[in-house]
Automatic annotation (TrEMBL):
InterPro entries: bHLH_dom, HLH_DNA-bd_sf
Species: Phialophora macrospora
Chain intervals with Basic and acidic residues compositional bias: 52-62, 142-152
Domain BHLH per the UniProt entry, residue ranges: 48-99
Top-rank lineage group of the source organism: Eukaryota
GO molecular function (one): protein dimerization activity
Protein name per Swiss-Prot or TrEMBL: BHLH domain-containing protein
Region of interest: Disordered: 1-62, 117-165
Gene3D superfamilies: Helix-loop-helix DNA-binding domain
Amino acid sequence: MSKQDGSESEGSSPVSSQASETQPRRVSKSSSSKKASRVTKPRLTASQKNFNHKDAENKRRTAIRERFTELSNLVPGALGHERSEQVMLGKSTDFLREMLLEQRRLEEMARKRGIAIDSGEPIREDDFGGPKWKANNMEQYEASKQKKDGSETHQANNQGDEEND
């Protein structure tokens, strides 16, 4: 509310605001005195926690349902199947696979006719999970995973040796 209404909260009256403008601000108190002067909120009861959890879960499910409905409008043949995640994911996968194949076919046709494609590199067989797909740095990942597994086994063996001593 405005100062003219006279319905301001306590502590922000014209007198106190004038006084605060003329006086320098106080240096902040130490953290321990701040904690003591701060009013703590009461802890939530079990039923309140349960209600909050259910409410958050319902919001999450609603958001997922809305996204599946949106997806069903984008994917041909999926309209009306948004309640079944399995059907939606299967139809979406099939649609994306068809789109990739169509793009590859069009790029090949353009290449044969000598038409330049300026949208970056053409899609290769190993892009987007094709039959020759191999994730970038997969070899390094596998090597580090084996090294990690080997060091954990080595540490476990050392601990077993120490316990036997």
